[in-house]
Specification:
The chain is an all-alpha fold. The chain has helices spanning about 5-45, 45-75, 80-115, 125-145, 150-180, 185-215, 235-240. It is built from 7 helices and no strands.
């Protein structure tokens, strides 16, 4: 390899190390956001919920930085097909992390509303367990990305079915609570949308894991993933509702 080519390859490697370090930083912030959003809900901690909302700005800022850096690398380094796949995967992973951050913020925004209402027995602890599963999935997906571990990435993809099943169970429970006592309707609607936001976080973690498979093998996972969430086809149940 000529000295010029070696210099270009070395510069590209440094660029990749930089943006991958930013991805890990962003992933760490999002893991904390999931954890704190669920904790604030269970403990009715409005101050912690407000912190989650504020900290989402840092996640958004990192997403912008990563996109700018990735675009710069593509423009200046003219990466080969394999290297380009790395850069594109970074951009897609960043986009999914940013979306998970937004969903965590949505969960936190509902905490202050629910804190003023009568608790629904067992609901917030169940939601926290669901969020914990997603948090662990995200950690494993990022580990799979760093290690280029296809087996771990595929395992994360399969685990999303468990999150979907937890969502379906909670959805039925919330319906039961609403039917038993109309006074539960408002609280249960908020809790349902929290559950839906957590279920969607799992979908975005799955997308990150699919990017790991793509990055490592050059192809997306072959098998069609079973979607266990039975409510996804109903637009009224899948749209995001922001809480001011």
């Amino acid at each position: 390899m000529s000295e010029l080519k070696q210099h270009i390859a070395s510069a590209f490697d440094r660029d990749l190390e930089g943006i991958q370090a930013q991805i890990l930083k962003m992933g760490g912030l999002v893991e904390v956001a999931i954890h704190n959003a669920a904790k604030s809900l269970e403990t009715r901690d409005e101050e912690l919920a407000a912190e989650v909302v504020r900290n989402d700005q840092a996640v958004d800022a990192l997403d912008e930085i990563l996109n700018e850096e990735a675009a710069r690398v593509i423009a200046l380094r003219a990466p080969t097909a394999t290297d380009l796949r790395v850069v594109l995967s970074v951009m897609r992973i960043s986009a999914n992390l940013e979306r998970i951050g937004d969903l965590s913020k949505n969960v936190a925004k509902r905490t202050s509303v629910l804190a003023q209402m009568t608790p629904i027995n067992g609901s917030t602890s169940a939601l926290r367990r669901m969020a914990k599963d997603v948090e662990i999935m995200l950690k494993d997906a990022l580990d799979a990305y760093i290690k280029r571990d296809v087996a771990l990435a595929r395992d994360v993809i399969e685990r999303d079915e468990e999150v979907d099943q937890m969502y379906n169970t909670l959805f039925r429970e919330f319906l039961t609570f609403m039917l038993e006592d109309p006074r539960n309707i408002t609280s249960c609607m908020h809790l349902h949308f929290i559950a839906k936001n957590i279920e969607r976080m799992g979908d975005h973690v799955t997308s990150i894991s699919e990017q790991v498979v793509f990055l490592t093998t050059g192809a997306k996972p072959d098998e069609a993933r079973t979607k266990m969430d039975r409510t996804s086809s109903d637009p009224s149940l899948t749209q995001d509702i922001e809480v001011e």
